[in-house]
Every structure is written in C-alpha cells, then in structure tokens.
Design a protein that fits this description.
The mean pLDDT is 96. The protein is globular. It has helices at 5-18, 27-34, 60-74, 79-91, 96-104, 124-134, 149-159, 164-174, 178-195, 201-209, 216-227, 233-240, 248-258, 263-273, 277-292, 299-304, 308-312. It starts with a helix and ends with a helix. It is 60% helix and 0% strand. The chain is built from 17 helices and no strands. 49% of the residues are buried. Helix 7 (149-159) runs parallel beside helix 9 and helix 9 crosses helix 10.
C-alpha cells in the first residue's frame, strides 16, 4: 500500500475493534461483557456508557485522522487551511458530533449516557479547535486537555512523507498542549523507527534520544514501564492510566506493546484493560502495522471496519 498507509489502516481497524467497549472504566464489569469470548473485538452490542455508534465505525480519535486522510486525498496544496475547513464540516455546527455535544449539556449528571447519546462523541480538543478556527485564531489547537487527538490527526500526514517540523503545525491545529505535542511526536518517531526496520523500536528510541532533553521525561517513563513488564497488564494500566490523558495513555500503550508479540494480541490485551482503549489502540495498531506489515492486521477485522475500504483503495 503506497505511502505506508497500512500503518493508518492498522490504527483504524484497531479503533473500530475496540470502539464498542470504549470508556468502560469498571474492569470487573468489562470482564462480564467479554466472558467466554476469545475474540471480543467488534461487539455487536455497544457497551460504552457514553455514546452509541454502529459497530464498525470509528471513535472521534480515529475520525480526526480520517478527516486528515480525506484532506490529503483531495490534494496537497493548502493542507492546513483545507484541514481546518474539513474539521469544521465534519465535527462542527450541523454535524451529529455537534448536535450530541449540545445535547450533553442537558445531561451532565447522568452516569450512563447510552440511551441519550445516539451517535458520535466529540472531544474537548476538537471543540476548542472548531471555536478557534471560527475566530480565525493563528493557533487553533485546544489547551484544556493533554490527549491523543493531535497524534491521530497527524498520522496520515506523517505517512505521506512530511517531515517532523511540519508535523508540529498539523498537531497544533488540534492541540497546542506542550505535553500533547511532545507525546504525539514520540509516537510518530517510534512508528518511524518501526517502518525503517528497527527490530526493537522502543530500545532504538531510547538510544537515539537518550541525550535529548525534549524527550527526557518520556524516556524516563519508558524505562519505568519496562520495569513493570512482568506485572499483569490490566492491573498495570489501572496504575499507569486508564484515561485519555498523557502520560498515562502513552505509558499504558508501551506496556501493551512490550508484552505483545503480534498486532492481534496487543489489541485484545489493550481492549481488555478498559478505559480509553481507543486512544491507546490508535497508537498500538499503527505501531504493530509498521513493525510487522499489513498482513499482521487480521483480514476478518479489516472487513468489519467501515472506513477501511477507502484506505485499501490507495494501492
């Protein structure tokens, strides 16, 4: 697949696979949902307590990547300007994302939103980005949260060969959080190392950036996670971070990666741990697709993923 788009396919399939169990924070309850199942991807019945979309569709994390992918397919001129326009169209006023965002204001104290939010869930970074784009601000990215939206937006752009300097501009359209930017770049460096043939991209990343002050905290975190390798994944994720925010979502992803030998086992392990599994699998799925190739993604999973066909057409 040209432009290494099998890596984006890896992220997309993983997100759709995890989506019906997105944001289930009660690990005991989650175990009852998957009891007796060897493969608990693409559950027919939605179990996310926050929103309900058709199985096979992707979460708001991967969808911002789909918007970038669409922007790139349209052409390579004025990418930043057109990406902003497409974000507003896909997530903004008139979209189901925005309608559901307005609906949420009425039900803030409700614990289980499943019967209320029918359709997708917009993330804080995207809400802020839309508001700032409308105000014609120079820096449009969100400031309130340190989450994975910037990485998800930049992944297809990175795969088309744009350099790391340009990546910062793309990430900043969605988030200007310094933490969000740093962890997004670290993920993309790890994927880059995997694509370039590193047998152990995580160790290569440590070697390459060991004296780099910018990634100092990330390298320290990776070393701490490596010491926890033998600990059960779900238990470790509960300590490292089940939620959407960095550094927890990154550290929990690293723990899944170092304990998995394949794309499939890594995604299943991540889903089983609960919480914001979609933010984690968007990185883990891309990482293993880069490391092991397109054939590492289960074909039966690809068939169940709604946006997969558009990526597969780019041969």
């Amino acid at each position: 697949m040209k432009n290494n788009l099998h890596v984006f396919l890896g992220a997309t399939v993983a997100d759709a696979a995890a989506r019906p169990l997105h944001w289930v924070y009660d690990q005991k309850k989650l175990l009852t949902y998957i009891k007796g199942k060897k493969d608990f991807t693409f559950l027919n019945k939605n179990k996310s307590p926050f929103y309900n979309i058709k199985t096979g569709k992707v979460s708001g994390y991967n969808d911002v990547g789909q918007v970038m992918f669409k922007t790139l397919l349209e052409g390579h001129g004025d990418i930043e300007k057109r990406f902003k326009k497409n974000i507003t169209k896909n997530f903004g006023s008139g979209s189901q994302y925005w309608k559901n965002f307005q609906l949420r204001a009425k039900y803030r104290k409700v614990k289980d939103w499943r019967g209320i939010i029918q359709g997708p869930w917009i993330h804080q970074n995207i809400v802020e980005a839309i508001q700032n784009i409308k105000k014609n601000k120079k820096l449009t990215g969100g400031t309130k949260v340190n989450e994975s939206d910037g990485y998800c937006a930049a992944l297809p752009y990175f795969l088309y060969g744009y350099n790391f300097k340009n990546l910062k501009k793309i990430i900043s359209i969605v988030t200007v959080s310094k933490i969000g930017l740093k962890y997004a770049l670290a993920k993309l460096h790890l994927i880059d190392l995997a694509l370039k043939g590193a047998k152990d991209p995580i160790n290569e990343f440590i070697k390459k950036f060991n004296k780099n002050y910018y990634f100092k905290n990330i390298i320290e975190d990776i070393k701490k996670v490596k010491k926890l390798k033998t600990k059960p994944h779900s238990q470790t994720v509960k300590k490292l971070g089940m939620a959407c925010s960095y550094p927890g979502t990154f550290n929990s992803s690293i723990h899944s990666i170092i304990n998995s030998s394949s794309y499939k086992s890594a995604i299943l392990r991540t889903i089983k741990a609960g919480g914001c599994n979609c933010s984690r699998v968007n990185f883990i799925g891309a990482y293993f697709a880069a490391l092991k190739g397109a054939n590492s993604i289960p074909k039966s999973w690809i068939k169940k993923t709604e946006p997969a066909n558009r990526i597969l057409k780019q041969k």
